[in-house]
Amino acid sequence: MKNERPLWNEYFMKIAYLVSSRSTCLRRKVGAVIVRDNQILSTGYNGAPKGVAHCAEVGCLREKLKVPPGERHELCRGVHAEQNAIIQAAVNGTSVKDAVMYCNHQPCSICGKMIINAEIKTVYIGKPYPDKLAEDMFIDAGVQMILYDIKTKELKRII
Predict the structure, then answer these.
(1) Burial of residue 30 (number of CB atoms within 10 Å: 0-12, 13-18, 19+)
(2) In whole angstroms, what is the distance from residue 152 CA to residue 11 CA?
């Protein structure tokens, strides 16, 4: 029996999905992994800030207000997975410059701005998200975004 090792993209995307299982968001479970030279630098999942009640405890403001995906990101008590991965790297004194991010969902425009300023050069996503502004900013900044289908292992460059 042959032992099949996953290729790097599959390996890191599976880790992003696993990280997302820690999410406390009621709408969308998101996980992010920041990698350089095939080494994990940091991970993050979406949820309330440290010491703040989770949405599971107090409810989802975006649901209550019927805010559609891709709009009014400021109306969320949660910190996004991409933000948490960047923040955790900073807390631990780890540069993410020239790194790659794996995320099971496409970043929103707020996360996109942080990714650009953190100098992350490539983002692999598991699923698209309706945020054209994030895509436009990635194009302007030269950040690649690649859709990775974990089931078929197919790559499709979006940007």
Answers:
(1) buried
(2) 14
145 touches 159 (CB < 8 A): yes
Give CA 141 to chain center in angstroms.
Answer: 18
CA–CA gap between residue 118 and residue 86 (Å, rounded): 8
Q: How far is CA 4 from the centre of its chain?
A: 27
Catalytic sites, residue numbers: 82
pTM of full prediction above 0.85: yes
Each residue of 29-62: pLDDT tens digit? 999 999 999 999 999 999 999 999 998 899 999 9
Strands 122-125 and 144-149, sheet pairing: parallel
